[in-house]
Each structure stands twice: as structure tokens, then as C-alpha cells.
Amino acid sequence: FQAVADAVSRQTRQMITAADCRAVELPPHLRMMLRVVGDEGTVAEGRDHAAILGRSREAWAERVRADRSQRVWAEWPTNAERIEPPEALQDNGGGVVRVTCPDAASAVWLHRFGCRRLVGLGLLSEVDTLLGHLPDAPRVSVLHLTVPDAPPLAAELAAVIAEADGTPAACTTRDELGLRLDRARGELADRLGRAVSAYARALEARQAAELRLADGPAGDVSRQDMHFQLAQLIHAGTLRSIEWERLLRLSAYVRGIGIRLDRLRSAGAAKDAASMRQVLPHWQRCIAAARDDERLGRYRPAVRAYRWAIEEYRLTLFAPGLAQRGAASTKRLDELAARLG
After folding, report:
1. Per DSSP, which regions of the chain are E strands?
2. DSSP output for 68-114
3. How far is CA 292 from CA 72, 300, 303, in A?
4. Hey, is 253 helix, strand or coil?
5. Looking at 125-279, which runs of residues are DSSP E strands?
6. Contact by Cβ (8 Å): 88, 176
7. What tens digit of pLDDT does each residue of 277-320 get?
8. pTM score
9. Is the peptide bond before 138 cis (omega within 30 degrees of 0)?
10. Closest CA to 241 of 159, 120, 339
11. Which residues lie below 8 Å from residue 113, measured CB to CB, with a gap of 6+?
12. What distance in Å separates the CA atoms of residue 308 and residue 311, rounded to the nearest whole number?
């Protein structure tokens, strides 16, 4: 339905949603044939979209279970901040591995995501069950498939939910991890509902923004900047790397692109370019710092803080109605940039 909605939207220049198309009764021979392809070939195929979604979810769950059984940690690391060289549990997508880090800050940062993956694996079967009863779940599952190389949704949601009540970085023993898991189970339904809703809003805003960005001149520098921003916000690793509080803000950052397009049309390219010039030096510095960290195998929380402050600053410039008061300013960005050295 989404493909049909996108095609009709492009032809009519009106926003048509998948729900609009779903409401129209079509004879079976006009229903779209869907094929879900995995690493080992076709997972599901046919015109019954609900059944295909169910079979696909079962296949993803089996894949996650297989990954979980193959990738386990051998032993809990000692306090990541004190031993030399520092060690941490690292999230590798399907499980965790014990790794040596170049510095204590990197170890603490990696350990945070490793611990939340472990809690997420403990929540996975319950998340799978709950997803079948959430009204937004089918919509989010379909939209999630439009993200290139998207990993299994349930496992990613389970992991990010694991830090809803604070960072798991303090988990330095198995007992602490068990307590974290128990706390996460206590509010799991509410947290999952909030996560699914937040991710659904972000994915829908992404599709709307992509549709509008495609309907414009290819050489438009402002649109190129928005394309790049959108690609950095939602990609295959978004749920794996995003913090809980940022997931709840994600749709605001994406919707800001749509508002920027409206302002670009009404206020003109010159004003948009002037605002963009205030952001680009920070954006380029942040990207350079992130690439250096990737090359050196280190993780600096200061880079992440800088990256999200830039997103908040974009909102103050291009979509002030969505900006959080006091979340970002040129002074704040300069201070965060200075921390990078």
C-alpha cells in the first residue's frame, strides 16, 4: 500500500497515505504481490500482506535466536574504568562480545550499549508477544522495511527500551544486570508503546520528507543538505545506536526538514543558505571527529553530545516551533566543539 500511496502522491502532488489506499477494497488480482527476501532466499511471498508480515516476523525472530546462541560473552569484564587496558561488553547486533578499548571513556560508552543489548535479549520474547497487540506495530514493521538493510525490529526495540529508566553503564556485575532487567519488565508495555509510536512518527515523517525532497531540482544545495541530514537520522543502525531520550525526539528532527522546506519556499533560498552557513562548520567538524573516532576505535560521549546539539540547533533555525527552549545555541555549540580538542 505504501508503494501505491507514494506513486499516487507523486502523480497528484497530494499527500496520500497507505491508510487511504488500504481503505479502498481491491479485487484480489489487483492486490500487490509482495516478496520478502532474506539472506537465504525468499522468506514469504503472496498477496495476503498480514500473513506475509507474520511469517517475516517469525523468520526475523529465528534469526535473532540463532545469533544470540552463537554470540555470547565468555566472562564479565572487571570495572571498565579502572583496569588496564579497559574492557567492555560490546553490542555486535545479535549479542555481545568482550572487547579491549583504547581508553576508559570508550570502554564506558561501549559497555552502555553492550549492557542494554543483554537486557534487550532478556526482553525479546515479551517484546515479540506485545508487538502483536500494539495498534502501531504493523505500520511500524512495514515502514521499518523501507530502511535499507534494516535489522530485525523486535530485537532493536528491545535493546533501546532497556535504557528507558537511565543509562545501563552502571551495570558491572550480572546481579546488577538482573535488577535492570526486572525494572525494565515492570514497565515494558508502556515503554514499548512509546518506542513504537516514536519510531512510527519518525518513519512517517521520513517518507513524507523524502517524497518532497525528490520533487525538486537536483542541484539545490539546501535540498542536498536536507538529504544528507535525513540519511544521518534514520538508517539501518539508528535503533542500535540511538539513546532512549533521542528516540523520543527523533520525529521532531525529521519533521523539521518538512518545515524547512515550507520556509524555503516562502522565505527563499538566500535566507535558508544564511542559516545553513551557521550550521555547516559545526556539522563538518562533528563528522570529522566521528570519523577520527571510528578510525582509532574509540568512542567519545562529547562527540555524541555535539552531534545531537547540532540537530537541536537546526530546529531553532529552520523549525523553531519544534525546538526545545535552551537546548542549543551558538555558544553551546562552541563549548561542545572546544571539548573535542
Report:
1. 34-38, 41-46, 87-91, 96-100
2. HHH---SSPPS-TTTSSS-EEEEE-SSSEEEEE-SSHHHHHHHHHHH
3. 29, 10, 11
4. helix
5. none
6. no
7. 999 999 999 999 999 998 888 888 899 999 999 999 999 999 99
8. 0.74
9. no
10. 159
11. 90, 91, 159, 240, 241
12. 5
